[in-house]
Write a structure and sequence with these properties.
single chain, mainly alpha, Arc Repressor Mutant, subunit A, Diphtheria Toxin Repressor, domain 2, two-stranded antiparallel ribbon, 2 strands, 72% helix
Length: 109
Amino acid sequence: MLHKRNGYVRSIDIAGELEFSKPSVSVAMKNLRENGFIDMDENGHITLLEKGQEIAERMYERHTFLSDWLMALGVERKIALEDACRIEHVISAESFAAIKAFVNGREKE
């Protein structure tokens, strides 16, 4: 989402967006880099590698689906976006698939 908005992503951008400390984000970026999820250039610009892109796309799908669903239930947009952000990181793949199937099944009726 940051990349879509800014055209680039740096650790400082992530810290500001998520309201995490710069040292916490730095440690997380090091772990992601060492595990092959991201690459960082000499200017500090972060690029998702294939493994990281797959996870990012899955999280974004969850975020979009959950926030739209919550707003359809009548939750205020700001709250729906915040709650979707929290839910998307902790919900199991099984539970997400079940919710998605249920909602999509209801839309066909």
